[in-house]
Design goal:
It is a single chain. By secondary structure, the chain is α+β, with helices and mostly antiparallel strands. About 20% of the residues lie in helices and about 30% in strands. The protein contains seven helices and 14 strands. Strands 1, 4, 7, 8, 9, 10, 11 and 14 form an eight-stranded antiparallel beta sheet that branches. Helix 1 (about 45-55) packs across helix 6. The two termini are about 25 Å apart. The relative contact order is 0.23.
Amino acid sequence: MTKLEHKIDFVALISVTNANGNGDPLSGNRPRTDYNGMGEISTVCIKRKIRNRMQDMGNLIFVQSEDRRDHDDKFGSLSERAAAATDWIKETGITGKELYAETACKKWMDVRSFGQVFAFKSGNDNDDGVSVGVRGPVSVHQAISISPVRIEEMQITKSVNGEPGKKRSSDTMGTKCFVRFGLYKIKGAINVQLAEKTGFSQEDAAVVKECLRTLFANDASAARPEGSMEVVKLFWWEHNCKEGQYSSAKVHRSVHVTPKNPEGIPTCVDDYEITLDELPGLVPEIIDGV
């Protein structure tokens, strides 16, 4: 593995067309929006998709989704998965905290990328246990749409028998909500100092970049049909030093996305103009998404 020596910043532009990119369970699973009508996709949702892509690429993942847990193992909870991998550390007592974190980072890519909080028994009957926190080098902002999004509702019905031998009941009504179109911006960075602590490598950074490029591969569902979610562009900056030549905020602000017609309602990516400020000495790799 090659040690990560340069700070990395990234921006991904993703489009949502006739889909629910991230439903809010406290609002009837309607697509998330802020008070200004801007669409949102939570950090948890984005990291879930990155973890799934990491798993698709053959990497071991600690925080697995329910429908993918048979991919690597059959553990039904995080505590079972952690115990199976680190059971031998119990005998080391409290002094095993660093060893516990090191073992977790080596085994699971999402732990050494995003970090994780673990709680385990120290092996001392008089001690309730020890909490181990791992700070990951990869930070991801929630995605925010460039323009306010239009959320539409479609009434749907279910008109089939739920149980054999029973007379069909009357149609069951429901609602399906979706964003007609939205262009969202994801921002993130990779910190070298934290990468040194978790063992996150240059090769791991390449995996994260590929995960972002292919973020919606194998992600289709009734709420997100194939082709409804797309990575439009990925901007990837690799600085020439650990601390970075510019702050992450300044790098992220260098990407400008503006509607070509401020009075109109954008309906596709072509309705936006994407420009990039020049940062002397720092040129991004611009990648087309999948």
